[in-house]
Amino acid sequence: MLASKFGRSALKHSPSSSCAFTHRVDPIAFSCARASTSNDNSKPALLPFKLPSETPSHSILRRFYTTRAAASRPKAHTGRATTSRPRKTTTGTSKKAAPAKKKAAPKGKSKAKPRSKAKAKAKKPARRTRAKRDLTPKQKADALLKKRRDLIRELRATALKPPKRLPETVYTLIASEKSKEAKGIAPKEASAKYKQLVPEEREHYNRLANDNKAANSTAYKAWVTSIPADDIRKANLARRRLKHMGVKGFNNAIQDSRKVKRPVSARLVFLQDRYASGDMSGMGLGDAARLINAEWKALGAGEKQRYYATELASRNQYVKDVKSTYHRDIVLNGNSLAAQAVHA
What we know:
Number of strands: 0
Helix content: 40-55%
Distance between the termini: 129 Å
Radius of gyration: 60 Å
Strand content: under 5%
C-alpha cells in the first residue's frame, strides 16, 4: 500500500518514475493519495505523475496532487449500494430569472391580531370500570332479600304508628292485670278469672272498658288531626302496600274525617236511586244489578241528563276538595260523557 511505499521522512518514487525527493510529506496530501488508490493490495500504488527534482516545497505537491488525483481516479467501491442523484445541468446562457420582489404594503394601521383561542383543557382519561361479575343464585337471593327489607323499613316509616290503645273489653282488662302481676303473659290465669266473675265485678270491668274506649277515641282523633291530611293519605297507601306484602300490623287504614270522597258516576247515581226506591228488595245482588243495567240502557238522552249533571258536579267538587285539603292540583282522566251531555 501507499503507507509502505511512503515513509515518514522521505518519498521514494516507483520503479517507473525517474525522480525522487527527500522532502517531508504533508499529512493532507498523504491522506488524499491514500484515498485515491485502488483496493487491490497486490500492486503498489503509483502516483499519476512524476515529481520534479527541483520542487522547492511540498506545498506545490499538495495543491497539484489534490486537484488531479480527485478528478483522475474514481472512488473505491465499498460494496454498499449507493443511489446517486442526477445532477442538474445548467447552461451559462439560460438562467432562470429571480422572482420579482413583492411590493411592500403601505404602512398604515396594523390590524389587531385575533386573540388566540384558549387552549382546550386536556380531557382526563376515563376511569377503567371493572366488569361486573355474574352473581351466584345465593347472592341474587340475598340481594333481593336486602332490597325487600329496605323497602319494608321505608314503608313502615311512612305508614305512621298510632298511639297505644288502652284495653276496651273485660277480658283484655283482666289479661293486662294478670300480666302485670306475673310480670309476663298469663293467659291461663286471665281465662280462669274471667269465667269466675260475679255480676258486680263484671259491671266494674264494663265501666272501665267504656271509659277506655272513649279515651282511645279522643286520643286517636287528636293524633290524626295533628298530622297533615296529605301525610295521612300517603300513610294509608304505604299500609295498603305492606298488607299486600304480608307484613303484619298494618291491616287497618288510618281513619281520617278529612279524607276527600271520590266522585260518583252517572250510572252509580242511578243505581243508588233505584235501590233507595225499594223496588229491588228481596232480590239477589246479581239479579238486581242485571235489571238496573237494563233500565239504564233503556233511558233516553233527556232522562240521563240529570244523572250526567250530578256526575259533573261531583267531579268538579272533588278537584276543589283535593286542592284545599291536600294542597295539590289534579287532572281527572276518564269518560267525558258527563261534560258532553251537560253542554249539549
